[in-house]
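[Backbone geometry]
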Amino acid sequence: MYQQEYKRKLVSAEEAVKVVKSGDIVDYGFFNGKPTVCDVALAKRKDELQDVQVFCAVTLPPVPEVAKLRGNFIYMDWQFSKVARVLQSNYELCYYSPILYHQAPSLYRDAIAPHRNVVISRVCPMDKWGYFNLGPQNSETMANMEVADYVIVEVNKNMPVCLGGAEESVHISQVDYIVEAPDDDVLIDVPGAEPTEVDKQIANHVMGFIQDGSCIQLGIGGMPNAVGKAIAASDLKNLGGHTEMFVDAYVDMMESGRMNGSVKRIDRHRVGYTFAIGSQRMYDFMHMNPALASYPVNYTNDPRVIQQLDNFVSINNAVEVDLYTQVNAESNDTTQISGNGGMWDFVLGAQWSNNGKSFICLTSTFTDSEGRMQSRIVPTFAPASITTIPRQMVDYIVTEYGAVRMRAKPTWQRAEELISIAHPDFRDELIKQAAELKLWRRTNKIE
């Protein structure tokens, strides 16, 4: 029965995207769910379409063809990637759309977000029960498909089948058109960034707070990968995993036997996640793996769910922190670098967890375009820089010089402790600036 329905709905990409009209709002699948064949077909209609809004999240290569066509298409990204940064900063062809990520499904179902006319998403081949698994990106996809006028799926044979959880598959009865991608249309291989020596130093500070039975959330980048590698090489036992983004570091922790989820209060023996970006090794590990559970983001990222996991340890990166302990994790002055993503969700959820902790990590310095070393701990942010995490939500801040806790501390003490983990070359100047801001009440000399 389902095979006959499949044949009826199977069309070319050119035929499927004919449903898009000028002024429509089109959602592409997030992350690896971004269509490729349908994107090319839609871009070919540029001469007959105007002001079509296209939304995506963490745009992965190849660069969407519609994003190159100003006027015909308006391209938006819920969470910037390198592709989105280039499109915005070099060509002004991409716009950022900030949300609280755990609310994404309700934005569609409660009609808060403007109505979506068409949803186009990559999926796995249909199974014998008529379901298309969404692959390594659950996120808000089902909520989006439920409210859209048209649902187009782009079947990709190279997508790993990711077990749920919940809402990890769409049934053929909910699909309007099926497009098949060529066999050589593979997922982009994004191996985890290799940790630097500074990343390893930061990871070692965090490791001192992880205990047997802790439940781990990792963000993206070299430093979280360093934590994962350190855990895999440790003697820790019975760790759990619950995260927004599944990354290669989880494969290391699980294959080493350190992470088995045996003492989690929910989702025991499984790592819950809502999307994954990583290496081909990681995608192979995820395929049909019952130790993983794909969930929509209103489950994985809801602080009320996170708080049910005892000893929760949330580890995320930041761009800079000011002396008020505000955290910028997404922008460089007027340039959007990434986004708030689920950082707010996990910073709060970890602190609601019994014995939970949130770590915001950053290298103490960076080298600018002219080769000069600059501090990531600054007196105040540039006027256009974004505060991702307000100071009242900050728990631990970590650099290669140590980890300091900010909760329940006054402004002067926060400034002093933050300066204590700044690069030594910048500490004296930061003390002067703290005094000018009336944040300084020296209690102990900072060496």
